[in-house]
């Protein structure tokens, strides 16, 4: 099994800016031994390590860490995709062992239509050339421009992180469901079943996440949906085993479906295997 989305960081190092000290639950170093302590008992042996800082130093550190860590099957990094030398930077990163994709952290950008800027074209073309994947960290409001981007770059594999962070705390679903349905119609788009607990309010019944899980599974199917923990961010709202067990129970898949959701889809999408 593969965890399709988790993070590592060191406080005060490698371009670290987040989490801040007020987030005491996760304001400490998280390294591969910490992840293995919670993942290995569940039979999860590999992961995709995703950047957590909009900083080249973070990506460089993750790639260096991955070289000596067999459980890191792939890295999703960051680079400034609108920089004048972005295409060259993308090609240089693609040459690094285990670099599988890039993530511009769209949720944090002031312009919801940032992704529509033609200044991105050289970098995205280089990503397609280098067979990299694009992780989209978005909210519902970003889905229309993301759909247009995905239509334009139909040869670019795209995965929506955290199911586009649906408004579970507000128990709203209609707009999110409509926009996700439109996006899911595009064959180059996959989705991560991750990060949903942190979209819930404190004390909200776990059962409230079920309609969102059912929708994602029904819309993408296990062949385009991949489970991820979003650990250690997950710890703000729950525990690793709890999220794993919830996803397994609420998806209700047979053995073949579970094999895809909990590993096969991620392995195919990112081009990794446990033996890599």
UniProtKB/TrEMBL annotation:
One of its GO terms (molecular function) is hydrolase activity. Residues 2-271 form the Amidohydrolase-related domain. PANTHER family: AMIDOHYDROLASE, AMIDOHYDROLASE-RELATED DOMAIN-CONTAINING PROTEIN. It comes from Sphingomonas piscis. Belongs to the metallo-dependent hydrolases superfamily. SUPFAM superfamilies: Metallo-dependent hydrolases (SSF51556). The keyword Plastid does not apply. It comes from the Bacteria. Keywords: Hydrolase. This is Amidohydrolase family protein. InterPro entries: Amidohydro-rel, Metal_Hydrolase, Metallo-dep_Lactonases.
